[in-house]
Design goal:
Elements lengths: L2 E6 L2 H13 L4 E6 L11 H12 L8 E4 L2 H14 L5 E3 L12 E6 L1 H4 L2 H8 L5 E6 L3 H6 L5 H9 L8 E4 L8 H7 L7 E2 L2 H11 L12
Parallel strand pairs: 1-2, 1-3, 3-4, 5-6, 5-7, 7-8
Helix pairs in contact: 2-3
Length: 220
């Protein structure tokens, strides 16, 4: 059976692992969650890289693909890992979801680590026909990991941007997928939809492993 290792520093990785098991039951999902150093958005890029490599070393060349389900890990480590371990297949998250719609305005719920990265700036530069307003929620990853993020906290954050029109909301942190339904209810005054990277990563996994299927539709 093909093995897919899902790596993250928090609950977002667990959420994606559950999603992948439901969508692609023909693969064995190996969960590698670095809870000890979570959340990564509180660390520097070099420190994140050291944590990622140390956590993944036991799995390199023992699984068919390793997926970095963390924007911080992807930003700091994906290129490095691909160069250092060329025999191992690695995937990460990206903002390719931006390419789905043209001439639209998005709210991007993310962290300072991501919002201030060259990775994110380059993604936006490739899309001059779209506009983005970053909603920085640096305390949310830890709150979600601890099960302490409330609807009221989300509502207070949304009120800060109640006068900003958007066609859709993009989740630039995998932990935020865990509260997607509550967030959708809180920002119901906005038009459009909330999107995350789960379906895109699923399709990339299928492509790398040469598998058919995996349409990315959530199973309830």
């Amino acid at each position: 059976m093909l093995k897919v290792a899902i790596f993250d520093s928090g609950w977002g990785g667990e959420c994606f692992a559950n999603y992948l098991e439901a969508e692609l039951p023909i693969v064995e999902v190996v969960r590698v969650i670095d809870w000890r150093h979570a959340p990564y958005n509180k660390l520097g890029a070099e420190e994140v890289l050291k944590c990622v490599e140390a956590a993944l070393k036991p799995y390199i060349e023992t699984v068919d693909v390793i997926v970095l389900m963390s924007y911080e890990a992807t930003i700091s480590s994906l290129n490095y890992l691909r160069e250092k371990y060329p025999k191992q297949k690695f995937l990460g998250v990206d903002f390719e979801i931006f390419h789905e719609d043209n001439g639209m305005k998005f709210l991007v719920f993310t962290t300072n680590f991501v919002a201030n990265s060259k990775f994110y700036a380059e993604a936006k530069e490739k899309l001059p026909d779209k506009s983005f307003t970053e909603v920085v929620c640096d305390d949310w990853p830890q709150l979600i990991d601890d099960g302490e993020l409330t609807v009221e906290m989300m509502r207070r954050k949304a009120e800060e941007f109640s006068d900003v029109y958007s066609d859709g909301v993009i989740l630039g942190c995998t932990q935020f997928s865990d509260v997607q339904d509550d967030l959708a209810e809180v920002i119901s005054w906005k038009q459009g939809r909330i999107v995350d990277e789960f379906a895109l990563v699923l399709r990339n996994i299928c492509h790398v492993l040469r598998l058919r299927g995996g349409d990315g539709r959530r199973k309830k």
